[in-house]
Specification:
Layout lengths: L2 H19 L8 H4 L7 H7 L2 H13 L5 H17 L4 E6 L7 E6 L1 E3 L7 E3 L3 H5 E5 L15 E6 L6 E5 L2 E12 L8 H19 L9 E15 H5 L2 H6 L24 H16 L4 E6 L5 E6 L2 E2 H21 L2 E4 L13 E9 L16 H16 L1 H7 L3 H6 L12 E2 L2 H13 L10 E2 L9 E2 L11 E2 L5 E3 L9 H27 L4 H16 L11 H10 L7 H5 L5 H9 L5 H54 L3 H35 L5 H29 L10 H6 L2
Parallel strand pairs: 1-8, 15-18
Antiparallel strand pairs: 1-2, 3-4, 5-6, 6-8, 7-8, 9-11, 9-12, 9-13, 9-14, 10-11, 14-19, 16-17
Helix pairs in contact: 4-5, 7-16, 10-11, 12-16, 12-17, 13-16, 15-17, 16-17, 21-22, 21-23, 22-23
Amino acid sequence: MSSNRNKVLKALKTNREAQIADKPQVTKKISEFFGENTFNLQKMQEYLPEHTFLRFLSTIKECTKIDAETVESIAKGLKKWALDRGATHYTHWFQPLTGATAEKHDTFFKPSFDGASQGIERLTVSELVQREADASSLPSGGLRGTNLARGYTIWDPSSPAFILESKNGKTLYIPAIFISHTGESLDYKTPLLKSAELLNQAATSVCHFFDENVKSVYATLGLEQEYFVIDKNFYYARPDLMLCGRTLFGANSPKGQQKEDHYFASIPERIQNFIVDFENEAFRVGIPVTSRHNEVAPCQYEVAPMFEELNVAIDHNLLLMEIMKRVGERHNLHVIFHEKPFAGINGSGKHNNWSLSTEKGKNLLSPTSDPGNNLSFLTFIINIIKAMNDYSDILRASIATPGNDHRLGANEAPPAIMSIYTGTYLQNMLNYFKTKGLGAPKPTVENIDLEIPKIPQFNLDIADRNRTSPFPFTSNKFEFRAVGSSANCGLPMIYLNTLVAHQLIEFKNEVNAQIKKGIDKQKAIISILQNYLKSSEKIIFNGDNYSPEWEKEATKRGLSNNKNMPRALNILNKKEYANIFIKNKIFNQNEINARLEICLEDYIKSTEIEMILIQQITQTHILPTANDCIQKLNENYEGLDEIGLKNDAESIKKEAQQILKITKEIKKLIADMTAAANDAHHKKSHYETALFFAENVKPFFEKIRNQADRLELLIDDDDWKLPKYREMLFIR
């Protein structure tokens, strides 16, 4: 066996035995340590004066600004709590347009220069509220430059501060937004908070048609996170995984997921130790993870939390991803969040379970026992359907990432065609409402008795689930399943919040216009909603989204099918779509242009990195191995020929010729790919360059891979340098 793979497999055996033996020790109930490293409401009540705590609660609930006195009191309480927990440093934790998080650590310690003391630990009001960052060194899309680089991180009080521990210290993390010196947003959180407030105002005003006592509405989110886990030695032995997050080469394992025996199967002990460890770390910073299980593909798993307020849920998801990576290192494992790290098996998504709730906890998307007469429920459901129908292309743009291009429409991932699944009961109720109004029959709960002794009766849900839909309605929420596993969900949620809010505002204005004409409020609402349904039917599809027939049907319906990132993003160049965000003050035109440029640049850079790595791996791993194999075969051929075994010698010769032919084809494809990439850089705009890479350069990736994977299956297993799929996916 080659030295590279041999070392990896030996190290893996040692890692596996050590990690299985080193079981996490949990001696407390989760409730005894949940949130102990979070400055949550319980800690705030303990460390803040009562009047400060009550003012803070009022500020958060009523969405008003925090006064200076309250901020000063919180800074003192937060510093004392952090020092009591052993923290020595603090950082503003923000979400730049890299898709990841960013941080700069500062110490609490301030030295004394008067000789009276050694110094003191301090956190001032200004340090809590505002810090400065070099905005030109992070993606800005032209909003910042080296000559005008100033950026600010500003404390977000709606998301709790927390402490992260390393082996040798503790740091206080303060969630923050990130803006430029001109006040333009350079992050995901700033527009997310704007969209949440827009949705609050729009949904609350619509709620007043039915209940004038509703004070506010907020979006809730439950983020199901899929991920792969492999031994870190495999990770370090695969340059493609290290630099791209996915394997650019690798023949499929004879056994993949075709037997469907990994989903919900017993979690391997080494992996369970890792999961228990990262869950405990998550619990300590207040992340309410509730479930764990094997996913469909080998080495693929899922973690899901409880529902939280949308902004906090996204912060917690980003923090959870970071915790998982850190804990993985301790277990000699590597966590992969790329949407499609391995070809031929399922990719990973991040299912965004989105709903709307009033300040009293009423779920506006809950059908209740009589949904056919629940006009409030019907109003919100139908407006969401209308928003999805009118702006599906914008939602498609919100999930456009280089990694998601590989996942959408492949191996049980939703297609790039945006549609809504309603389920049979809801669809029948909407059909009834469309022509007759209120009064659709109540849903009947069906009891099932299997007539097996000791097995109790159970109830069926009123609707089935559709895992093929990108945006299904699931009992009391919508599940945006098309979001990629590595994504910062802030972007799709900004778009979803804004589009639904925009639609609700239009609906409210239409209803009020009808009321002014003397039309009864309920009649006006029903009539408008019926028209919405009739104009939005094309977006509803309850069948199999994976089927080729749906792609043809979607084309007939006029639904877009933008299969690559550049084409999906180009929709943002349409003025009527951009104006929705400008009119509602989520983005200005500069911010829209900047984000489009950043996304296109990211696509170009990601594709170029993969292209260069394909060249390097073929030249330094694959072709040298093939050449060595040809030389060995040639020696065998000469030896057999010398002793008169002509037939056997000819067989060896044909094998060598086959390998040689493949190597020549790889070299030709690489030359053609390089020439195409050179042409891409002569395009006039980032969009044209990105599109050329997508449609004229990337196709070579698969062609080169196919040839290289043929070599993997022809060359002696002992000579192949790269860890194989069967090893990475099944040796745990």
